[in-house]
């Protein structure tokens, strides 16, 4: 007999298995598959506004490395899944953020990074040109507090977003 | 050269247009950089600045900063800080205008550095700089109501549909 | 080799729209096409923040650039009128967020000079040490991000890794990674952590190696030289009249540094050079020169840090908060106090009317003044050159917009 027959003898086909069977077939639900694909490759739009942008850049750099989570910075909103609003949103900038958010294709997610994007931050009291929280113009999925949040905190926020994506369903789109 | 000496040279040429010398001397540095002279007649501001720049004893070739100030007694001030990098002396000048007639000559053609500072002065304090080549707001949008750094400014409740206060 | 312009004499140059249009000199007989308005919007990977540039293009050549700022205007000056002097310090940090030690020091120095406070020796040494470390950190971001704009991704990672080491030293001392609120009026918030001098010496060894690496890998890289040499030439007289300062001014050959020409703190005790641009690979005052000044300043800062570590009074046990007054209430008066930050000359015009809040604080930010020169140095260049010029000016939008 040939090599292929020898291999054929070594593989054990007698054990039944839900997940795998002959010929590498995987059985899962559509939701699990889509969610796994989406959360493992959340491409972010590089949108740094202020000080938090530097912490976002430090998170993408080699010590904290956001790319190992599958997050690649893309320059255009049309090619990205998640937008990280890092920094203070001013009234002048708010309409542009809304425009950028509308340009992103579905499914899209928003991480509001830092105290300023969450609620106005240190500028909440006398800021006549500061929008007190980006959720006044776009819907936010995850809030990461801090001024600025540590890179580990941003990664935690990213992982919370991944948990949120894992719970999604394709039935209601 | 100290500020009183510069003021003496200016009084030789612009008698009646230069006001008092105000000194603050809690430290040597403050005496040099904080004390200022008033410019009594704002119409002569541009001529004074040209003289400061071109005179051989003074040679102020650099405008350090142009700030605006609200004195809360119905007057606004524009403060100029000048420096001569050649002769190593500094000067601070202040022009005061009433709130009802806030027009100050522009010095953009004397020191081009003043261009953006004067635009910011218009934006934040509402002082009109006559003769400025590009007189429009720089930091806020053109339709923002009011001039924020005035002491009687109240922030708007809504702006373009967005709620402004916390 | 073009000579260094050391004389500061200026001719009156009118910086108006009728400045010589370089394109006409390049190609006098060309088919005229229509001009196009391109918007490099507030969201752009290369504009270093939220800056909007309206670029008028004739084909690939830039006819005019109109910067629009204010997308990060956070009302800093209005906040200062309602806060006490110590409460203003975190806001000052957030204006120039890449060099918050320097900004904080500038404001602390302004109030100290208004009150006539003398800080202890030890505090001065720690301040200089951290200011120079902050200068290196800021220049690392500038050089790394500049490489990123040009298209080189690796130096960005190298520079950020080195910066993480500096941040670790700051974090051990005051707990924060990069907005420290460390320089207080009359002293510091925390004493120097005992492990920092040791870490600093190790860092200096690594930094010297990395400096040589960056010079070989990026600064003298043929592609980098081609893209940034002879681009965005800023003549010295235009620079002084236009209010440039810092590496932008020194890149044009003008040897003006506030640490030497208007000394503050204890900088007069240390021996360091002032690097200027000399047109090594192109004209004096081009984008490469400005970057070269930053690279050289990195080296000079390392020398200063070594001198500080050698002369630091290790046995001194004075409390770093000893000279901080119980109530920070400067007498009525004004001051314009300036220091040399990594971006240039930063000044604070503080007006006090004998209250616990300042009456007015105006921050003269170097980035605002350097950015106003952008239209004048980028007429007649290509769109790709425009990116190189923006990166070489090294501005931080938090400081431009306040």
CATH superfamily of chain C: Cytochrome-c3 Hydrogenase, chain B
- List low-confidence stretches of chain C: 1-24
Please tell me how large the radius of gyration of chain B is: 17 Å
Please give the share of residues in helix of chain C: 40-55%
Structural class of chain C: alpha+beta
CATH class category label of chain C:
Mainly Alpha
Strand content of chain B: 25-35%
Specify which chain pair forms the largest interface.
B-C, 39 and 43 residues
Give your account of this protein's structure:
- Chain A has 173 residues and is of the alpha/beta class.
- Chain A has helices spanning 3-10, 30-39, 51-60, 91-103, 115-119, 151-166; strands spanning 44-45, 73-74, 82-86, 109-113, 142-144.
- Chain A has a five-stranded parallel beta sheet with strand order 2-1-3-4-5.
- In chain A, β4, α5 and β5 (142-144) form a beta-alpha-beta unit.
- In chain A, α2 packs antiparallel against α6 (151-166) and α3 packs across α6 (151-166).
- The longest helix of chain A has 16 residues, at 151-166.
- Chain B has helices at residues 3-13, 28-33, 45-54, 114-125; strands spanning 18-22, 36-39, 62-70, 75-84, 89-98, 103-105, 128-130, 158-159, 162-163.
- Chain B is α/β, with parallel strands linked by helices and 166 residues long.
- The model of chain B has no long low-confidence stretch (mean pLDDT 89).
- Chain B contains four helices and nine strands.
- In chain C, α3 (85-93) packs antiparallel against α4 (100-115) and α5 packs antiparallel against α6.
- Chain C has 402 residues and is α+β, with helices and mostly antiparallel strands.
- Chain C has a single domain (2-32, 84-367), classed as Cytochrome-c3 Hydrogenase, chain B, CATH 1.10.645.
- The chains are: A alpha/beta (173), B alpha/beta (166), C alpha+beta (402).
- Chain B binds chain C through residues 24, 26-27, 29-30, 33-34, 36, 61-65, 67-70, 79, 81, 85-86, 88, 92, 109, 111-113, 115-116, 124, 133, 137-141, 148-149, 153, and chain C through 7-10, 14-16, 69-70, 73, 75, 77-78, 113-116, 240-243, 256, 261, 330-331, 333-338, 345, 347, 349, 351, 360, 362, 364, 368-369, 372, 401-402.
